[in-house]
Amino acid sequence: MKTLIIKQRNLIFDKNEEIIEHIILENKNIVLKTEKNFFILENYINLDENKKEKIRSYRNHPKIKKYLYNTHYISKLEHEKFIKILKQNNQKQYFCINYNDQILGSINFKEKNNSTIEFGFYSNPFLNILGLGRILEEISIYYSFSIFKKKEMILEIFSENQKVINLHKKFGFQITSKKIFQDKEIFFMSLKNSLQQNLP
User: Fold this and answer.
1) More confident of the two residues 7 and 63
2) How do residues 150-168 score in pLDDT, each as one tens digit?
3) Are 151 and 192 in contact (CB under 8 A)?
4) Domains in the chain: boundaries
5) What are phi and psi of 144, to 5 degrees?
6) Model-level pTM greater than 0.70?
7) What's the pLDDT tens digit per position in 75-105?
8) Three-state secondary structure string covering the chain
């Protein structure tokens, strides 16, 4: 599959392009195919040292961590321990999203119950690709509804992160409730599986 990705020289993913199939590999990595592109969802537990460090650098980037609950610096040791814990946790999945040997970002999922899954993502802060957030959103929705077969997706997001809130709304997510965390407003958002047919 890696050679297929290498052949794709340009990231062309227009809003009418859909994920048409997936392959779940034995090592828990996932291959997603659209009409023009291939993406690899590489499970954190399979990352080599180079990718672990890249993901850690993205997570520690000020642009990323300012919208996360935990804003402290993630050390290499802490990151290693976190990935080791993931190996024993069947309710959480973290993926490094790869395209053409380039990391697009990270997506994480947490199974809340039999019908609901919580998710979050962040893009590679060193990339400047138009529509990258939409690509990660498409992948998240496909994974939750077509692979994990959940009825509802939920997320939490800082109210000041208006750009990503608007992205979620374009895909049908709705604000369901609010809370305050360290003097900051948090929105809870939800998307029902029945809305999947009306994606932009």
Assistant:
1) 63
2) 999 999 999 999 999 999 9
3) yes
4) 2-198
5) -65, -40
6) yes
7) 999 999 999 999 999 899 999 999 988 999 9
8) CHHHHHHCCCCCCCCCCCEEEEEECCCCCEEEEECCCEEEEEEHHHCCHHHHHHHHHHHCCHHHHCCCCCCCCCCHHHHHHHHHHHCCCCCEEEEEEEECCEEEEEEEEEECCCCEEEEEEEECCCCCCCCHHHHHHHHHHHHHHHHCCCCEEEEEEECCCHHHHHHHHHCCCEEEEEEEECCEEEEEEEEEHHHHHHCC
β-bridge partners, 32: 22, 39
Contact assessment for residue 101 and residue 6, using Cβ atoms and an 8 Å cutoff: yes
Q: Which CATH number fits domain 2-198: 3.40.50.150, 3.30.1330.60, 3.40.630.30, 3.90.950.20?
A: 3.40.630.30
- 95: number of Cβ within 10 Å: 25
Angle at 9 between CA 8 and CA 15, to 5 degrees: 70
What's the chain's average pLDDT?
89
